């Protein structure tokens, strides 16, 4: 039902500290292997319209498209899991493969993941 690389609205009411709250767009980061099951949570990255330039690797600018009405920053340092019930199932937009590669790279940098295991 929810697709990796797609943007949906989510109810993020239970925010704490610097976590973004309210209803806002989120990117589905979790693998479709879990998205296509009845797994109760989904890993997301929130978006904000409070744009800040030159914040690599913390943010990635997403230009307005489809039903995403404004340019937004993807908050790559705000990874979180939410319940499926918090997501509104109408897809707003879809990132390109190139954009998803950029997201993956930025998250890898922030989590200090390396390709050599």
Break the fold down into its secondary structure elements and pairings:
Elements: E1 6-12, E2 22-28, H1 32-35, E3 41-48, E4 59-62, E5 72-75, E6 80-83, E7 87-94, H2 97-111
Antiparallel strand pairs: 1-2, 1-7, 2-3, 3-5, 3-6, 4-5
Describe, in plain words, how this protein is organized in 3D.
With 117 residues, this protein is an alpha+beta fold. It has a single domain (6-111), classed as SH3 type barrels. It is 16% helix and 36% strand. The chain is built from two helices and seven strands, in the order ββαβββββα. Strands 1, 2, 3, 4, 5, 6 and 7 form a seven-stranded antiparallel β-sheet that branches. 21% of the residues are buried. The model has no long low-confidence stretch (mean pLDDT 92).
The chain-level mean pLDDT equals 92
The shape is: globular
The main β sheet shows up as:
7 strands, antiparallel
When the domains are counted, the total is: 1
- Compute the number of helices: 2
Order of helices and strands: EEHEEEEEH
Strand content: 35-45%
What is the CATH third-level topology name?
Answer: SH3 type barrels
Structural class by helix and strand composition: alpha+beta
- What is the strand tally? 7
